[in-house]
Specification:
single chain; 307 residues; alpha+beta; SH3 type barrels; Alpha-Beta Plaits; five-stranded antiparallel beta sheet; three-stranded antiparallel beta sheet; 9 helices; 10 strands; elongated
Length: 307
Amino acid sequence: MNTIIEWFQRFFGGLTEIENKVITTIVLIILLWAIQRIVTRSIMKLQSDLAMRYTWRKSANYTIYLVGMIGVALVWANSFGDFATYLGLLSAGLAIAFQDPIVNMAGWYFILLQKPFKVGDRIQVENQIGDVVDINLFQFSIVEVGNWVGDEQSTGRIIHIPNSKIFKAPLANYNEGLDYIWNEIQVLVTFESDWKKCKRILQETLNEHAPKVSEHAKKELQSASGQYLIYYHKVTPIVYTKVEASGVLLTMRYLCEPKRRRNTTSYLWEKILDHFNDPKNGDMDFAYPTRRAVTTGDGVKAGTGND
C-alpha cells in the first residue's frame, strides 16, 4: 500500500500544476459519472411509478451536474480572486462561443421557475402540437399529435424543441388554468328539415352523452381566477344555429379533456347518426352539395349550384 502511495506521489510530483488539475478534473468527471449510473439504477429498482421515477432521476442528474460544475471550478481556482476572475472569463467566453446553448439554459431555468408547462401537458409551439415527455437543460421533447393524423391523435413521432423557443414563439398550454378544452361538432341539415327538432335532439344528445365535466370545470375556473382573468359565463354543453348556403348549420359545443377529443367526437357522431337513421325522424336530413338538372323546351339541360 505504501508503495502505491509513494508511486502516486512521485508521479504527481513530476507533473506541472496544469497537468495535475487536468488529471484531477478527469478523475472527478469519471467519479461523478459512476455515481450517476449507480443512483439511476437504484431509482429504477426502488421506484415503480413512472412519473416519480422520472422526477427523481431528473433531480438526481441536476444535483450531480451542479456538484460537478462547482467541483471543476474549485479545482481550477487557486483563490477567491482567481475564482472570480475565472468565472468572469468563463462567462464572457461562453457568451460569445455558445450563445444558443446559453439561451437554451436560460429557457430551461425559466421553465423550471415559471412553469409555463410541465411533463404530461399538451402544448403547442408554433405549428408543433404534442404532449411533453421530457425537459432537460437544452431542449424539451414532445410526442407529436395532429399533423397528418386527425383530431390531434398521436403520430408516434418525438419532436425535440430548443428551450429558447419559449422566448421567441407563442406557447399554448392545453392544461394550464383549465384541464379541459372546448370541442365543436358541426351538423349541417337541409332547409326542408325541421331544424328546431334537430337542434333539440342534438342538445339532448349532448346533455346525455357529452363528458360530465361542467361542475369540475367551474371549480377549476374559480381556482384559476386567482392567477388568470378568465370569464366563462357558460360551461355546460350548448348548440348554436347558423345559416349556410347549403342549409342550417347546428354547432354542438362542449368541454372535454384534450386527449379525449377524438373519442368523444366519434361517440357523439354515432349517437347523432342513430337519431337521423331513426324512422321517426324522417323530417331530419343532412345537407350536402348537390346539383339539379333542368330540361328546357329545346331539350338542353342546365345545371344549378348547391342545393
